[in-house]
Amino acid sequence: MAATLTQDRFTGPEWIFERKFDGIRWLAYKNGSDVRLFSRNQLPQNIPSVANAIKNLPARKLIIDGEVTWGGGKVAYHVFDIMWLDDRSVTTLPLDERRELLSGLPLHSPLHRVALLVDPLPWEWAQKEGWEGVIAKRRDSQYEHRRSPHWLKMKCEMAQELVVGGFTDPQGARVGLGALLVGYYEGEDFVFAGKIGTGFDNKLLLDLRAQLDKSEIPKPPFTKAIGLPRLRAHWVRPKIVVQVGFIEWTVHGKLRHPRLLGLRKDKPAREVVRE
Q: Rg (Cα) of the chain, in Å, rounded?
C-alpha cells in the first residue's frame, strides 16, 4: 500500500498521523523459521539482524510492512502495518484493528514500532524535527495493494516569497482565477518560477481576481521565462507578493508542488529574490 502525495493540511478524529521516514520500504515474510525480506519492487534483501529479530517473533506466519533506515552505523526496521498473522490475512481489517494486532508483537531492536504523532499540527512538528514529512492514515482503511487516497503523505515544505506576474482563467466550477503565475528578481531580471493553483478558498480567488484586473498589462512582465502558459493567461504589473510553500526547486528552476500560504503586504516586490 502506497501513500498519495497531498498539499492539504488537516487533522480529524478519523485520521492517525505517523512520521514519514527517509528510508527504504521493506516487506517481511515469516513462515516458521524461514524469513524473507523484500523491497517494494520485490527485490530480495538481506540484513541478518533484522531477519533474526523477525524469526524470533511469536507467530508461525507473518507479513509485516515497514521502512528500513540507517543512522550512526545502526540499522532500524520501523514497522507500521501487518498483513498476515498465523492462519489468516488481516488486510481487510480496519487500520486500528491491524495496529492492535501489531501491538501484541514484542518488537525488539532493530525492530521498532512506529508511534502515533499526537501533536495538533503534526506537519509543523515534522518540519521542526527535520523529518521528511508525515503520513496521514484513515483509521478505518483496509490494506490495499495500490497507491491509496486513504494514506496521504505530507512532505515538509520549503517557503519562499514570490511576486505575482500573471494568472490564468478559471475552468470548470473554479471561480476567480485558475492559477497565479509567479516569479522572483535576479538582478534586473524578473524570473518565472511557476504557477500556484492550490491554497485558495473562493473568497480569496474572487478578491485576488478583482485586485489583479486593476493592474492588467498586455505583455508578460517576466524577462526570464521558460514554460509560460500561452492560453487563457493574463499579465499584471508585478506588485502583489505572496508566501508560497513547496517541496523543492526542480532542475529547471520551477516550484515543485507549490501551494499558497498567504499574502505578504510587508514585503516590497522588488526585494523578492530566490532564497
A: 24
Largest CA distance in the chain: 73
In sequence order, the β-bridge partners of residue 85 are 62, 88
User: Does the 2-155 domain belong in CATH 3.30.470.30?
Assistant: yes
Sequence ranges of the chain with CATH classification 2.40.50.140:
158-271
Instruction: Provide φ and ψ at 260, rounded to 5°.
Output: -75, 130
Encode pLDDT of 192-240 as tens digits.
999 999 999 999 999 999 999 999 999 999 999 999 998 899 999 999 9
CATH number of 158-271: 2.40.50.140
pTM of the predicted structure, to 2 decimals: 0.72
Question: Could you tell me if 199 and 259 are in contact, meaning their C-beta atoms sit under 8 angstroms apart?
Answer: yes
Average predicted confidence (pLDDT) for the chain = 95
Q: Each residue of 51-66: pLDDT tens digit?
A: 999 999 999 999 999 9
183/196 Cα distance (integer angstroms): 11
Which of 99, 79, 86, 89 has its CA nearest to residue 141?
Answer: 99
Q: Between vectors from CA 15 to CA 77 and to CA 263, what angle results, nearest 5°?
A: 105
Three-point CA angle 207, 163, 262, nearest 5°? 50
Structural contact between residues 192 and 250, judged by C-beta atoms closer than 8 angstroms: no
